[in-house]
Amino acid sequence: MRIMLTVAYDGTAYHGWQVQAHEEKTIEGVLNSSLKELTGEDISVIGASRTDAGVHALGNLCVFDSASTIPPERFVPALNSILPPDIRIMKSEAVDSDFHPRHVNTRKTYRYGIYHGEICPPMERLYRHHVYGPLDIGAMQEAAAYMMGEHDFAAFCAAGAQVDSTVRTVYDVHVETSENGEHIDIYVTGNGFLYNMVRIMAGTLLEVSRGRIALSDIPKIIKSRDRSGAGPTLPACGLCLVGYDFC
Amino acid sequence: MRIMLTVAYDGTAYHGWQVQAHEEKTIEGVLNSSLKELTGEDISVIGASRTDAGVHALGNLCVFDSASTIPPERFVPALNSILPPDIRIMKSEAVDSDFHPRHVNTRKTYRYGIYHGEICPPMERLYRHHVYGPLDIGAMQEAAAYMMGEHDFAAFCAAGAQVDSTVRTVYDVHVETSENGEHIDIYVTGNGFLYNMVRIMAGTLLEVSRGRIALSDIPKIIKSRDRSGAGPTLPACGLCLVGYDFC
C-alpha cells in the first residue's frame, strides 16, 4: 500500500529535507526512523520538495510503501505520537501504487515572510526575514505582476544549479501586508521552482520596494537570464512551503 | 543615571526572568551580563515582572543605574548588538533616580494564546497552548466579564503562594479569535496578578467554553476563595506579558 503524508515542520533545527551523507538531522531522516519505529519496516519516503536547511513547511508531501495493516488515515496520530513536536503529520491517505509526488502536475505555493520594523520581536525571528526602512509596497506588487506567466527564470536561479530547462510557469505572485504594516507576506504559486528561485524573487521584490531596482527593469532582468541583475537570495527562515494543488 | 528598558523575549529557552541560585539561564542574568559587557559596571537590573520559566514578553520593564556616558536611547542598539536574538530591547529611556517599576501604579496586560484545532502547526507550538474539540467562545466571553472588577482572587492563585492580600483589580478580560477560529487570545489587564493567576483564569475560561464549568458558577468560584473550584493552570508557553500602562 502506498501512503501519502502531508507534512508540516519548523525547519529551524534541521539541515533541510533530504538525508545527508553525514549524520545531520533532516526531516526525511526523522520521518524514515519514525516509520521504522512504527511499522518495523525499512522505509525511505519520497518527498515532493527537498526544502533547504532552515526552510519551513505547512504542507510538504511525501509517499512511501508499507505492508503494515495500519489504516491509511491512522498514520496521522500514530506518527505524531512518535515525531518531535517540530514535525507534524497533518494528513495521511492511500494513493495509487505508482503515484510519485514529483512526477505529477502540481501547483505549489510558497510564502516568503518579512518582518518590517525597527526591531524584530523575538517571537518572529525564526519565521520572518527582518527588514527596516521605507518600503514601497505598491511598487513591490507591480513588480510581482511582471513575474507572472511562463518565463525563463535563469536570472532567478542560484549559480551552479544544473537543470535541463530554466523555464517555469508562475501562476500567481502577490503581496499581503498586515494592517500595521509589520508583516509582509509574498505568495508565489508555480508549476515548479528553480534552486533558490523564490528567495531570489523575494529579494528582487524587496530591492524594488527599496528603490534599488527600478520597476521597469524587471522584464529586462527576466529576459537577461543573468543572475547578477536580480536581487539577493533572502535567508531561509522567511521561506515556507505552504502546499500543493494537484492540477 | 537610572535607565528603564522595555524588554521583549521568547521565554522558551529560559528559566524565567529571575536569576537563580544554580546557573540556569535567565532573562535577568543575560541582561546583567550584557550590561557588564557594555558598560564595564556590575549591574543588577530591577524587573517589573518576574515572569516564570517559558513565559514570553513583548514589553516587560526593568531599570538599572549606570555611570556610563552612553545616551539613554543608545542602550537599544548597543544592547541588541550583544544580546542573543531571543531577547530584544525595544526601548530605553532615562527615568527619575528613585523610580522603581514595582512601586508605581500600573496597568499590566497579559495575553494567553490558544491554538484551537486537531493538530498544532509546528510554528505555533512554542507560543500557544494546543486545544482540540468544541469550544463555546460566547460562554468564554460571558465568563470573562464576571472576572472583571475588584475581587479577592485567592481561588485563582497557585497554592502555597505567600502574599499579604489576594485582592486585585482586573480592568479588562476579553477574548479575541481569528477568522478561522484557530487562534484564541485571552487578554487580561489588571493592577497586579497573583502567582499563576492569568494561567488559572485562562484555564477556567477554557473549562467554561468546554462546558465543564458552568458559567453561573464563576461568581461562586471567585467568592469561595478555593483554588480547587477553578480550572487548571495552563502551560507557560501560551502566556505573554504584553506590556504596561502607567496610571
Can you summarize this structure?
2 copies of one chain form a homodimer. By secondary structure, chain A is an alpha+beta fold.
Query: Which CATH architecture of the largest domain in chain A would you pick?
Result: 2-Layer Sandwich
Strand content of chain A is: 25-35%
Secondary structure: helix percent of chain A: 10-25%
Helix/strand order of chain A: EHEEHEEEHEEEHHE
Sketch the major β-sheet of chain A: 10 strands, mixed
> In CATH terms, what is the fold-level topology of the largest domain in chain A?
Alpha-Beta Plaits
Number of helices of chain A: 5
Q: In oligomeric terms, what are we looking at?
A: homodimer
Largest interface: A-B, 22 and 22 residues
Q: Mean pLDDT across all residues of chain A, rounded? A: 96
The termini of chain A sit apart by 23 Å
Structural class by SSE content of chain A = alpha+beta
Q: Give the C-level CATH assignment of the largest domain in chain A.
A: Alpha Beta
- Coarse morphology of chain A: globular
How many runs of DSSP E, i.e. beta strands of chain A?
10
